[in-house]
């Protein structure tokens, strides 16, 4: 089996970290914004680490993201409600990833 040229240009380290290199270019920009938002929420007591994060707050964060930056034009149109839903799913996925990473880190710290 042969691989497309673009896959051979992706570094080995990047492939091993995650599959985000497969994202379309438009989605990569939004993913970077989501990571920035999550970076700001990554502290003790953050809603991101609540046992059950608040849906209203997550929707507010998505609306704020859609009101600025790279996804403003995509979220403005009523026909792009699926795009807003995509941003929300991506945010929830990133939050879940970080919650899991934090739990694993805390488990390793206290198991010794």
| Coarse morphology | globular
**How would you characterize the largest beta sheet?**
none
Strand portion: under 5%
Number of domains: 1
DSSP helical segment count: 6
The arrangement of helices and strands along the chain is: HHHHHH
In total, the number of strands is 0
- N-to-C CA distance: 46 Å
- Helix coverage percent: 55-70%
Contiguous uncertain segments of 5+ residues: none
Average pLDDT metric: 78
**Mind telling me the C-alpha Rg?**
17 Å
Structural class: mainly alpha
Q: Topology, please?
A:
Layout: H1 5-8, H2 12-17, H3 25-41, H4 55-66, H5 72-76, H6 81-110
Helix pairs in contact: 3-6, 4-6
Keyphrases for this structure?
globular; 112 residues; mainly alpha
Notes on the structure:
There is one protein chain. The chain has 112 residues and is an all-alpha fold. It has one domain. 66% of the residues lie in helices and 0% in strands. The chain has 6 helices and no strands. 10% of the residues are buried.
Would you summarize the structure shown here?
The protein has helices spanning 5-8, 12-17, 25-41, 55-66, 72-76, 81-110. By secondary structure, it is mainly alpha-helical.
